[in-house]
């Protein structure tokens, strides 16, 4: 269903690029949503439930570029729709640049919560504090890092950030179900570039081993990586990496450009410091086998104070320009 929509929308209303500048209305040729993947549960009486699917919201700009962006969150779509201060987020910024955008909720998450398996949720005081330190806003609750790219004196922004979460199911089964549904989504839309946040990166890497329609991966602070059997860090597979795949599956990652973006204040955080080291192992292995992977450390290119989600920070427009550079270098910005 989505393929003819994409084709028709490309001709909907071609307009000059200047009309897409900041402050101008965003010209949308077509928008909508669809479910993808999943299965049907049947009981002994033959009654059914359609479940386990992902949810895709799409917006196609007038005069779209050839490639599309598939935004994959690990909290909620909020982080792609706004920055922490309420300025327009990556979804709008890249619609203005002419990219078709997809917002993805994987099976069991957010708008795709009609799962096929039993789910449970228990509120737990302390999750706000965990978010604060895990996202590297500061070492302790409301003890902000100096120069942090977050509006620290804006109570509304802090409230919004702590509410930018869905219940997640970080299990091996859930990761595989989500990657399988996403691979089907990439096929359904005739290919897209995965732009991921946090744990969405591991799922996107796994989806790229199942679909030839993942055109590239841009991963912001991905905590988990794929390795061929017998390679990479020791230990069992975990929901946050490493995850081991066959040589054939790993070889599919060598065909696409990949960029892994990291923010600031990592050295003082033991978990993220170890995840950056795992990222280096993965990138070295990919490139040694002829792939095209790179690490972008934002402080090394002059952007300091970035959090775990640089695309939502106060300097997110500068971060977006670096994404422009990556897309242009790999010929992914054509019309």
Distance from first to last alpha carbon: 23 Å
Low-confidence segments, given as residue ranges, are: 8-19
The CATH first-level class comes to Alpha Beta
User: What is the architecture at the second tier of CATH?
Assistant: 3-Layer(aba) Sandwich
The number of helical elements comes to: 10
Can you offer a commentary on this structure?
- With 335 residues, the chain is an alpha/beta fold.
- It has one domain (2-117, 125-329): Rossmann fold.
- It has helices at residues 2-9, 78-81, 90-96, 127-134, 155-162, 172-188, 200-208, 247-251, 270-288, 316-329, and strands at residues 28-36, 39-42, 48-51, 54-61, 68-72, 100-105, 192-197, 214-220, 226-228, 243-245, 257-262, 292-297.
- The chain has an 8-stranded mixed β-sheet with strand order 1-4-6-5-7-8-11-12, sandwiched between helices. The chain has a two-stranded antiparallel sheet with strand order 2-3.
- Helix 9 (270-288) links the parallel strand 11 (257-262) and strand 12.
- Helix 6 (172-188) packs across helix 7.
- The radius of gyration is 20 Å and the shape is globular.
- Mean pLDDT is 93; it is low at 8-19.
């Amino acid at each position: 269903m989505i393929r003819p929509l994409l084709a028709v929308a490309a001709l909907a209303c071609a307009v000059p690029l200047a009309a897409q500048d900041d402050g101008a209305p965003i010209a949308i040729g077509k928008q909508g949503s669809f479910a993808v993947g999943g299965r049907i549960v049947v009981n002994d009486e033959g009654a059914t439930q359609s479940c386990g699917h992902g949810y895709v919201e799409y917006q196609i700009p007038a005069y779209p570029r050839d490639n599309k962006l598939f935004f994959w969150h690990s909290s909620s779509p909020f982080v792609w729709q706004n920055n922490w201060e309420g300025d327009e987020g990556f979804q709008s910024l890249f619609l203005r640049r002419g990219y078709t955008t997809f917002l993805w909720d994987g099976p069991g998450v957010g708008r795709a919560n009609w799962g096929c398996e039993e789910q449970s949720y228990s509120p737990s005081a302390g999750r706000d504090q965990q978010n604060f330190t895990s996202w590297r806003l500061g070492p302790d609750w409301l003890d902000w890092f100096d120069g942090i790219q977050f509006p620290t004196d804006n109570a509304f922004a802090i409230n919004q950030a702590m509410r930018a979460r869905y219940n997640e199911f970080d299990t091996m089964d859930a990761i595989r179900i989500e990657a399988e549904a996403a691979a089907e989504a990439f096929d359904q839309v005739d290919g897209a570039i995965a732009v991921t946040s946090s744990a969405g990166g591991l799922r996107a890497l796994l989806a790229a081993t199942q679909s030839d329609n993942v055109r590239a991966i841009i991963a912001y602070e991905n905590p988990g990586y794929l390795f061929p059997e017998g390679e990479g860090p020791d230990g069992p597979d975990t929901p946050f990496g490493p995850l081991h795949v066959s040589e054939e599956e790993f070889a599919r990652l060598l065909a696409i450009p990949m960029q892994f973006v990291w923010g600031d204040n990592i050295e003082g955080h033991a978990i993220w410091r170890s995840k950056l080291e795992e990222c280096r192992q993965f990138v070295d292995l990919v490139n040694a086998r002829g792939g095209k992977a790179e690490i972008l450390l934002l402080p090394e290119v002059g952007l300091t104070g970035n959090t775990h989600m640089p695309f939502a920070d106060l300097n997110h427009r500068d971060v977006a320009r670096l994404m422009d550079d990556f897309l242009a270098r790999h010929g992914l910005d054509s019309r």
